Amino acid sequence: AAKDRGKNCYAWFSDEMESELHRRNDFEQGVRSGIPRGEFEPFFEPQVDLATGRLEGFEMLARWRSPTFGLVSPEIFIPIAEESGLISDLSLSVMRQALDAAKSWDHRLTISVNISPAQLKDPWLAQKIVKLLAETGFPAHRLEIEITETSLFENLGLAQSIVASLKNQGIQVSLDDFGTGYSSLAHLRALPFDRIKIDRSFVTSMVETADSAAIVSAIVKLGETLNMPVTAEGIETEEIGQMLVEMGCSKGQGWHFGRPKGILATQKLLVELGHATFADGQGPGDFG
Ligand code: C2E
Ligand code: MG
Ligand code: MG
Ligand code: MG
């Protein structure tokens, strides 16, 4: 492949880079053909009210069950889908399955969906989501859209109009992975977020690193002041959950409360829980 691009490029392509390219092509082909085959599916990670332990809803996380590569992480296939223009189809396919399943769950439960930077460049994004809600019958107020700061960087104007359309429909919008992007504070003012999600890199290190704990506490206070409640991600221990309660953090998720699971396993969990909360009955570890 490098040879086709002329002599000057040739020197830049080592054997390693060649095989990396082939691997990437294989992945891209796999993603492209896997979407219509239904190989992409939603997993669900519990989100709880930290003070009471009550289950509030789930974050939907995409998984690729590839016949060739096995169960593939979104950290690998999302960037490939973005670069090859497949992210919109992939995302809508996974969302459709999630909303179809979740519409019959307890009507208080919310579903949070991640939207990638490439999708925020699509002027029709809000319309596509609204159409999906109409087709699946999932109510707008139970849907939360998660946007990362990085995706606001490229076209803030379009992002603002998409967020305005989503909010007009009653959809909640949250700022994901807060603290890891650029000029965070300006973004909080630029968009009417309903909620802030603290990145797990701060949360997992809260016990060992006083600075992390101080940052998390400051973000929770900032959220209170701006009327944007905070969700903490990456809560792996009871101790961290307790620290967050004391800081006044409203919602949380992480392996302490439960790992992401497929539709059937999630439905089984909901049956087991009944109307109980994560605080009573079996310990949270039983769901991990
Ligand atoms: P994110 O939105 O920050 O999602 C949280 C990630 O942290 C998930 O990884 C989740 O499994 C992981 N996680 C949750 N709790 C814990 C914990 O207690 N400890 C640790 N170590 N990790 C925890 P996952 O599922 O691999 O997703 C990675 C990222 O991929 C997500 O980060 C999200 O940005 C992206 N992603 C996932 N699904 C989709 C999707 O459908 N569309 C788009 N655009 N992006 C997605
Ligand atoms: Mg997220
Ligand atoms: Mg996140
Ligand atoms: Mg994160």
TrEMBL record:
Residues 24-274 form the EAL domain. This is EAL domain-containing protein. It comes from Flavisphingopyxis soli. The lineage of its organism: Bacteria, Pseudomonadati, Pseudomonadota, Alphaproteobacteria, Sphingomonadales.
